[in-house]
Design brief:
By secondary structure, this protein is α/β, with parallel strands linked by helices. The protein folds into two domains: 197 residues, Rossmann fold, CATH 3.40.50.720; 242 residues, NAD(P)-binding Rossmann-like Domain (Rossmann fold), CATH 3.40.50. The chain contains 18 helices and 14 strands. It has an eight-stranded mixed β-sheet, with helices on both faces. The chain has a six-stranded parallel β-sheet with strand order 11-10-9-12-13-14, with helices on both faces. Helix 5 links the parallel strand 4 and strand 5. Helix 10 packs parallel to helix 13. It is elongated, with a radius of gyration of 24 Å. The termini are far apart. The model has no long low-confidence stretch (mean pLDDT 96).
C-alpha cells in the first residue's frame, strides 16, 4: 500500500519508518524544510535507538522518502496518516487540535480518489468525527473514510513496540476502512499480534485510559515510597512483593521522582478536561496530576536536606535530565522542576546527560554541561542520579566519592544500595522509599 504520513515528529517518523519496513511505500511529509533536509541526508532529528539504521535500510530499498509537498505524497495514497502534535492548550488543559484540523483541511483539498484518513495523533474523544466533518465541508464530493489508530510507543523502545506490540487498536466506521487498516497491519496479524477493531470513540478512549492508568500506577508507588521512608520499609522489596501478584504486575512499579515525557502529563490533563466537559469528573486522574507535581517538588526538599538546608554556593552534579533513558526528550521531565530550583537557590549545577544537551540548553539556563560524570563530580558537594542511563548504572563510586568536596549522593532512581554508598566512602546518601544515612 502507499501511505502518506503527515508529520515527522516522534510518532510520525517512527511509524513511517516501521510501515516501510513492513513493505509499504511510505512518504513522510513535513512543513519544516530543515527537518526534511536532515532526513534526506539520512540524519534522524530525534534520538531513538535503532531508528537511523532502519530508516537508511528502507530509504535504500526505495520504500521510504521525505517531502515538503503534501499533494505529491497524497497522490495515489490509500491511507493518509495525521501524526502532528497535539500539545496541551494553554489555560484549559485540553489537547490543542489546531494542527490536526489544518492537516484534515489540506487532505480534503488535495485528495481526489478514495482514501482512509487515519488519526495517529493522540486526540480527545470525538476528534475523528470532527476530522470527518472538516473534510466533508472542505470537499463534499471526496470519497473517504476516517480511522483512529492511537500509538502506544515507549520512547527508547519505540521500534520494538511497533514491531512487537501488545496490541494494535483501530477505530473505524465502515467495513471498507477496516479492510484497509487490516491490510496495513497484516504483517503483524500474520505473526499473531492482536489487532483490536473498535468504533472511533472507543479507540480514542483506549489511548487516554491506558496512559492515565499507567500514570496512576507510577504515582501510587511513588506515594507508597514516601510512606516507606517514614515507617522504615524498603520500596524495592514492597514493589517486588506487589508485582508478583498477577492482578497487579511488576511493570511501572519503580519508584522515582515523578513521571514526565510526551504522553503521561499531556494525556492525563486532557482526560481530566474531557471529564469536566461531560460532567463526569476524573477524580483519580486529577489527583494523580496533583500528586505527581508534589512528588517532583518533594525531590527539591530531599536535595536541600543533603545540602545542609541551603543550595547557595553548593556545587551539584546532575546525572541525567531527560525524562527517561534512551531518549533526548525533555518534555515535563522532573529535571525541569528540580534544576531551576537548584540554580535559583544559588547552586552551581553541572549537568551530564548522554542525549539531553540539545534540548536542555534552552530549557535549563544557568547550568554547565559536561560530557563525563566524574568531571561533573569534581569538587562537588552533591551528586544526583536523576535519569537511569546505563552510563550511570555502574559508576565507580569510590572514584566518584574521592573527586567530591563532600561525598553525598541523592539516588533518585534507586540505582545503588546503601551498602554501595557506604563502602565507597559517601558520608550521606538518600534515595526513594528506602532508608538513607546522613553525616554522624
Amino acid at each position: 500500500m502507499k501511505i502518506a504520513m503527515i508529520g515527522t515528529g516522534y510518532v510520525g517518523l517512527v511509524s513511517g519508518v516501521c510501515f516501510s519496513d513492513f513493505g509499504h511505500d511510505v512518504v513522510c511529509v513535513d512543513k519544516d524544510p530543515k527537518k526534511i533536509e536532515m532526513l534526506e541526508r539520512g540524519e534522524v532529528p530525534i534520538y531513538e535507538p535503532g531508528l537511523g539504521a532502519l530508516m537508511a535500510k528502507n530509504v535504500e530499498a526505495g520504500r521510504l522518502s521525505f517531502t515538503l509537498d503534501l499533494a505529491s505524497a497524497i497522490e495515489g495514497a490509500e491511507a493518509v496518516f495525521i501524526a502532528v502534535g497535539t500539545p496541551t492548550r494553554r489555560g484549559d488543559g485540553h489537547a490543542d487540535l489546531t494542527y490536526v484540523m489544518a492537516a484534515a483541511e489540506e487532505i480534503a483539498q488535495m485528495a481526489s480518489d478514495y482514501v482512509v484518513v487515519v488519526t495517529k495523533s493522540t486526540v480527545p474523544v470525538g476528534t475523528n468525527r470532527q476530522v470527518k466533518q472538516t473534510i466533508k465541508k472542505a470537499n463534499p464530493t471526496l470519497d473517504f473514510d476516517v480511522a483512529s489508530n492511537p500509538e502506544f510507543l515507549r520512547e527508547g523502545a519505540a521500534i520494538d513496540d511497533f514491531m512487537k506490540p501488545d496490541r494494535v487498536v483501530v477505530g473505524v466506521q465502515t467495513d471498507k476502512a477496516a479492510e484497509a487498516m487490516n491490510e496495513l497491519y497484516r504483517p503483524l496479524a500474520q505473526r499473531d499480534y492482536p489487532v483490536v477493531v473498535t468504533d472511533l470513540e472507543s479507540a480514542e478512549m483506549i489511548k487516554y485510559a491506558a496512559n492515565a492508568f499507567l500514570a496512576t500506577k507510577i504515582t501510587f508507588i511513588n506515594e507508597i515510597a514516601m510512606l516507606c521512608e517514614k515507617v522504615g520499609a524498603d520500596i524495592n522489596q514492597v514493589s517486588n512483593g506487589m508485582g508478583m501478584d498477577a492482578r497487579i504486575g511488576s511493570r511501572f512499579l519503580q519508584a522515582g521522582p515523578g513521571y514526565g515525557g510526551s504522553c503521561f502529563p499531556k494525556d492525563t490533563k486532557a482526560l481530566a478536561r474531557i471529564g469536566q466537559e461531560h460532567a463526569v469528573p476524573m477524580q483519580i486522574t486529577e489527583t494523580v496530576i496533583t500528586v505527581n507535581e508534589e512528588i517532583k517538588r518533594r525531590m527539591i526538599t530531599k536535595l536541600e536536606d543533603l545540602c545542609d538546608g541551603s543550595f547557595n554556593g553548593k556545587i551539584i552534579a546532575m546525572l541525567g535530565v531527560t525524562f527517561k533513558p534512551d531518549t533526548d526528550d525533555m518534555r515535563d521531565a522532573p529535571a525541569l522542576t528540580i534544576v531551576p530550583a537548584l540554580v535559583g537557590g544559588g547552586a552551581k549545577v553541572r549537568v551530564c546527560d548522554p542525549q539531553g544537551q540539545h534540548e536542555g540548553e534552552a530549557l535549563l539556563p544557568g547550568v554547565n554541561w559536561v560530557d563525563d560524570p566524574y568531571k561533573a563530580a569534581q569538587n562537588a558537594d552533591l551528586v544526583v542520579v536523576l535519569t537511569e542511563w546505563n552510563e550511570f548504572r555502574a559508576l565507580n563510586l569510590d572514584k566518584l566519592a574521592r573527586k567530591m568536596a563532600t561525598p553525598r549522593m541523592a539516588d533518585l532512581r534507586n540505582v545503588y544500595s546503601i551498602k554501595d554508598a557506604k563502602r565507597a566512602g559517601f558520608e550521606a546518601y538518600d534515595s526513594i522509599g528506602r532508608m538513607g544515612f546522613n553525616p554522624a
